[in-house]
Amino acid sequence: MSRMTKQEKSWVFYDWANSAYSILITTAIFPLYFKAAAKEAGIAASTSTAYWGYANSLATLLISLCAPILGSIADFKGFKKRFFTFFFALGIIFTLLLAVVPSNQWMILLICYMVTVIGFGGTNIFYDAFLVDVTTEDRMNQVSSKGYAMGYIGSTIPFILGIALIILSQQGILPISVTVASQAAFAITALWWGLFTIPMLKNVKQIYYKDQVSNPVTNGFRQLFLTFKKIRLFRPLFLFLVAYFFYIDGVNTIITMSTAYGSDLGITSTNLLIILFATQVVASPFAVLYGKLADRFKGKTMLLVGIFVYIVICFYAYFLKTTLDFWILAMLVASSQGGIQALSRSYFAKLVPKESANEFFGFYSIFYKFAAILGPFLVGFTAQITGNTNSGVFSLIVLFIIGGLLLIRVPEHEAIIKSNSFSQ
Description:
The chain is mainly alpha-helical. The chain has one domain (6-422): Growth Hormone, Chain: A, CATH 1.20.1250.20. Helices cover 81% and strands 0% of the residues. The protein has helices at 6-28, 30-40, 45-74, 79-100, 106-129, 131-134, 140-170, 178-195, 198-203, 216-229, 235-264, 269-297, 299-318, 323-351, 357-370, 374-386, 389-394, 397-408, 413-419. 46% of the residues are buried. One of its GO terms (cellular component) is plasma membrane.
């Protein structure tokens, strides 16, 4: 970190900042809190699960559909930081509301959560696009990788604080209820997210942009239409996005299905939490390692290495039987999870025209969000027809093979720059 510029450090710290939301609100605490609130209100478990799924799907769909046009408008001078700040404030405010809305108001809690999903997702579009503004192409791999590494480490601190509050309240050591402890965890999330975003707000500026026009909204729509019209000029870029869609779907599915998979193997919830924590810690240095190796062997090569590791993971998952096997699988995931995500971001940032980075990262966001549909369905369908969860995870190998084969066909970005002019 000492060798990074102020702008690079400030950008990286946002990964540290928003990681609290990812683990406490999205993954670990709020889903259980919402389920308990709905149950207390007399809502059937299956019904509350359905509402949870609908809420996530609707919020994700809204921000995904808006991403390209918002990005197109944000490419004009002065708009990128405004959009980033707006969605950041939206996420922070409604995360704080989760801590003060009474637990018996389960529907209001769910609506607030949906707004936090929109705030979190919207902010990330412009955060990713700021990568082209804070560093040079030759440093993108390392800066992006360090962002993910900081995110993994940063997520463990509020995670430990939140879980500790809940466990201590359950055991009567703290004189508060589990509800109050959970609400305190939500407040910690918002404060953590807000505090460590200050450097980003203060030090990161939009360097690449299009000159301001009289009507940026109308011109944003016009630019989006022109991008689709000239899509053949961006063929390598969109070929990469299709490859990304497949392999990142496999990565995300393994992340989201890991808890259910471990439960099916008979692993206790305590062990699963410990393994989740260990995975976050181990993933951090490996994300940095991927960034360093990418500078030596090229980002595309290391992306293919990461895809190969995930193919090995799918094979290994088929023969999984014990808790030790699950530990080994988790460490294999940790070795490549952050690296493949970080290098995908930096590789894409090198391909896009810098003055249109927001628009193209809007498309990147769409492919990332919609790459959460095929994988879980494939796992569920295969597991159901075979009666074996291991077979379901093994089926994901298809996504990694397709993604890898498509990625091989994407030219190196140096060759793309020579053969195409993105400014045409």
